[in-house]
Design goal:
methylmalonate-semialdehyde dehydrogenase (CoA acylating), alpha/beta, binds nicotinamide-adenine-dinucleotide, six-stranded mixed β-sheet, about 20% strand
Length: about 500
């Protein structure tokens, strides 16, 4: 393991007070409230973030509305050029962005770089806005009449994002919204807000006009003020299910379109014919990567008889050699959890699993990391013999806790997955193409992996789950993202010879 690398000292992003980004500049607003931003590996408070008041949110929404008047009329050529310039800046500075993510979230640097890469892919998708916004045209639908449909921006849009992907999740939203001619307000997680500030500063550098992308920092007060604000026309949310439900209900109640992505409990079914080495590798990577703080993490392995004993043994063998340390060092597999409060909540679930009667095969609750005694550590935990009556099966834990459920048949495995309230991702490990085909048709989930444990769709497909993992009709990015941030307008036009004109009070007929 290498020594801990220094995070580039970016004043106002990793140290000091993180301010809002409004009208192309740092802005503190009137609120004096702040919240601490921790370095999860040391446990220190590294910075503070400003928390917007209701009147700050009002000013930010008005700024977005003003900017929308001109940005909606900007040419596709202008938007495309700005998007390409942004893509170049993000690519050149990806290491800096990743370092800021690691410093505030705790995930290891290579993982942070992976997140940044997937975010950049959405910017690349948005570079093709000319193609994405092409309308449809029908000539001569009636005599001398043509009809065409165009897609126009909806207006100022709001994105509320979670702590676990501080760059990728904002980038699921804002490049698509902005390329479609909307302005965008980003309300990032107050736990790791540094990446959001860089994303906005760099977009301004790329030539984005002031006010087209504003960042409003804050907590529930800011979210509630913004989702109820008249100027905002669309709300994208990503976070836990209870807050997703609240945002979806409140924002639709005030007449806005909403997509609210919630929590998850992703299952990985391992059939008897699967490659068990590959399945164990996948369970480890998807269960403990990013310390389990991924909405696409595998949290339940469903072992179909007779693979249970062998699979559990292989998972244990791999989990025991994982390196847990400061994510800024090389060769680290797992960093700390995001805050001590979250770490204690995850520990509480492990205590609960023991009370509920599951077999705790690996216990990472009391792990000690050398030189970092106050970091928010948690080692890999593995429960075997978990059943569907247990809360550790039904509730999202969001930490490095993997549950194994044993079942007798494929049908039992599928029924168990479908019983979950969530329907985000799911995976099947098998060598049987017929079983895989049947599975992808039958299963109740929005994203399916066949021998792929984390089936995160590429930018030109759309990301989103079913059930309590998504409230709203459209998923993020891809064509569904474009539809979400645009409204269809259909024009019917007649250019007829004046001699054919005359009054006709009947309902328009196509002739
Ligand atoms: P969270 O729900 O606590 O917070 C998400 C956002 O909501 C933050 O910006 C936060 O400031 C705001 N918020 C928190 N409490 C609020 C309240 N009472 N009222 C209004 N706004 C509030 O989620 P988190 O802990 O930051 O992120 C982890 C969760 O996000 C997990 O449940 C994870 O599964 C989920 N997630 C889902 C996806 C997905 O695509 N479905 C992706 C990433 C994360």
């Amino acid at each position: 393991m290498s020594p801990v690398a220094e995070t580039p000292g970016i004043d106002g992003v990793t140290t000091g007070v993180l301010e809002h980004w409004v009208n192309g500049a740092s802005w503190s607003g009137e609120s004096t409230r702040t919240s601490p931003v921790f370095d999860p590996a040391t446990g220190d408070i590294a910075a503070q973030v400003r928390l917007a008041s209701e009147s700050d949110c009002d000013a930010i929404a008005e700024s977005s509305f003003e900017a929308f008047r001109s940005w909606r009329a900007s040419s596709v050529a202008t938007r495309t050029r700005v998007m390409f310039a942004y893509r170049e800046i993000l690519s050149e500075r990806r290491e800096t962005l990743a370092a800021v993510i690691t410093a505030q979230h705790g995930k290891v640097l290579s993982d942070a770089l992976g997140e940044v890469g997937r975010g950049i892919e959405v910017v690349e998708f948005a570079c093709g806005v000319g193609e994405l916004l092409k309308g449809t045209y029908n000539e001569q639908v009636s005599t001398d009449v043509d009809v065409w449909t165009v897609r126009q921006p909806v207006g100022p849009a709001l994105g509320i994002t979670p702590f676990n992907f501080p760059a990728m999740v904002p980038l699921w939203m804002l490049p698509v919204a902005i390329a479609c001619g909307n302005t965008f307000i980003l309300k990032p997680s107050e736990r790791d807000p540094g990446a959001a500030v860089l994303l906005a500063q760099w977009f301004t550098e790329a030539g984005l006009p002031d006010g087209v992308l504003n960042v409003a920092h804050g907590d529930a007060d800011a979210v509630n003020a913004l989702i109820g604000h008249d100027r905002i026309r669309a709300v994208s949310f990503v976070g836990s299910t209870p807050i997703a439900r609240h945002v979806a209900t409140s924002a639709t109640g005030s007449g806005k379109r909403v997509q609210a992505l919630g929590g998850a409990k992703n299952h990985m079914i391992v059939l008897p014919d699967a490659d068990l080495e590959a399945a164990a590798d996948a369970a480890i990577s998807a269960g403990y990567g990013s310390a389990g703080e991924r909405c696409m993490a595998i949290s339940v392995v469903v072992a179909v008889d007779p693979v249970g004993d062998e699979l559990v043994a292989k998972i244990v063998e791999r989990a025991k050699v994982l390196t847990i340390a400061d994510g800024r060092s090389d060769g680290v597999d797992m960093g700390p959890l995001v805050t001590s409060v979250h770490r204690d909540r995850v520990r509480g679930y492990v205590d609960l699993g023991v009370e509920e009667g599951a077999t705790l095969v690996l216990d990472g609750r009391n792990i000690v990391v050398e030189d970092r005694p106050d970091g928010f550590w948690m080692g890999p935990c593995l429960f075997d013999n978990v059943t569907t009556g247990m809360r550790i099966w039904s509730e999202e834990i969001f930490g490095p806790v993997l549950c194994v459920v044993r079942v007798a048949t494929y049908d039992e495995a599928v029924a168990l997955v479908d019983e979950s309230d969530f329907g985000n991702g799911v995976a099947l490990f098998t060598r049987d193409g017929g079983a895989a085909r049947r599975f992808q048709q039958d299963i109740e989930a929005g994203m399916v992996g066949i021998n792929v444990p984390i089936p995160v769709p590429v930018a030109y497909h759309s990301f989103g789950g079913w059930g309590d993992s998504l409230f709203g009709d459209t998923k993020a990015h891809g064509s569904e993202g474009v539809n979400f941030y645009t409204r269809a307008k259909t024009v019917t036009a007649r250019w007829a010879d004046p001699a054919t004109r005359g009054p006709d009070l009947g309902f328009p007929r196509n002739t």
